[in-house]
Amino acid sequence: MKVLHVESGRHLYGGAKQVLHIMEGLKRHGVENLLACPTGAHIATLARPHAEVFEMKMKGDADVGMGLRLRRLIAAQAPDIVHIHSRRGADLWGGVAAMLGRVPAVLSRRVDNPEPQWLVRPKYAMYEHVIAISDGIRKVLLDEGLSEGRVSCVRSAVDPRPYLGDYDKAVFRAGLGLPANAPIIGMVAQLIRRKGHRHLLQALDAVLVRHPGAQVLIYGRGPLEAELREVIAERGLQGNVRLMGFVNNLPAVIGCFDLLVHPADLEGLGVSLLQAAAAAVPIVACRAGGIPEAVRHCLNGLLTAPGDVAGLAAAINSLLGDAVLREHMGAAGRALMLREFSVDAMCEGNLAVYRKVLASQQVLRPAGMAA
């Protein structure tokens, strides 16, 4: 079986990391992977051990040429199936290219925001099947009118191995110039509005009264960086909040947090939640999208209503004030990841969808049957 994966993101955010895991797992199953991605994308180098990589210009929804370039690639490489993993024009032009090339296409849906009804029918008509990365997203798709037989839930996953080692929290704090006992709250998310950074900054009014030495480390980059810096300055939080930027060594640091906070208004599942749980870090998050699937209330974290700043502050204070509870929740989160969010299960789920689609098209090749 030959699969062309299309990932249009330039940076190695959570979705792109999932594509890497999927291709690595599919290769173990005997699948031949091809990857189309933007020129210079971070995923390109990391994907080469698992896929033949084709870098090309990808400029978003208005880039009609993306469809033509993908169409030429499909004609030249003759994949059995095309798997679109991202938006940014890929979900439009990748679907068009596959349709013109008469190759069945699958779309991964990673976000839970509802789409305009006028867009739903023509967009999803291009795809034989849609893979939702959480049950929350699957419900959104069914509510939009897709039939149950065309939507499957295959949850995102993380490779837990980089998160299972011991973390030296004292050395980490010393490297930041912090006392060894400074409480550290981490947030790992793109700096975009739906991730809810503003809710965390507002909640700090109540948190710092009880935990004045708490430090908030915000990892990620995005269009809200300048605005967040202004808010931090306006609220006098420079001594307690740091924007850390994007880091490539997150597995080396995330386990040094006392708590991960993820106050998103909308979220498909949240890869940083899976990473934190694998590192045995308890979580405070919102009941949005697929988050309750990764954060089980009172098991590996606490959940609040989206936008509930008072509730968010209360949950943070509750966990910062109880080291034993944090330890118990951290251990429960790691066990949950090992039990329900394995990379092998994610790869097998995607492969099952491919086989189902190809069987329905009656174009399954002998190599695909052996995969």
Explain the overall architecture:
InterPro entries: Glyco_trans_1, Glyco_trans_4-like_N, Glycosyltransferase_grp1. One of its GO terms (molecular function) is hexosyltransferase activity. Keywords: Transferase. This is Glycosyl transferase. This protein has 371 residues and is α/β, with parallel strands linked by helices. The chain folds into two domains: 185 residues, Glycogen Phosphorylase B (Rossmann fold, 3-Layer(aba) Sandwich); 180 residues, 3-Layer(aba) Sandwich (Rossmann fold), CATH 3.40.50.2000. The chain has 16 helices and 13 strands. The strands form two sheets. Strands 3-2-1-4-5-6-7 form a seven-stranded parallel β-sheet, sandwiched between helices. The protein is elongated, with a radius of gyration of 21 Å. The chain starts with a strand and ends with a helix. The relative contact order is 0.13.
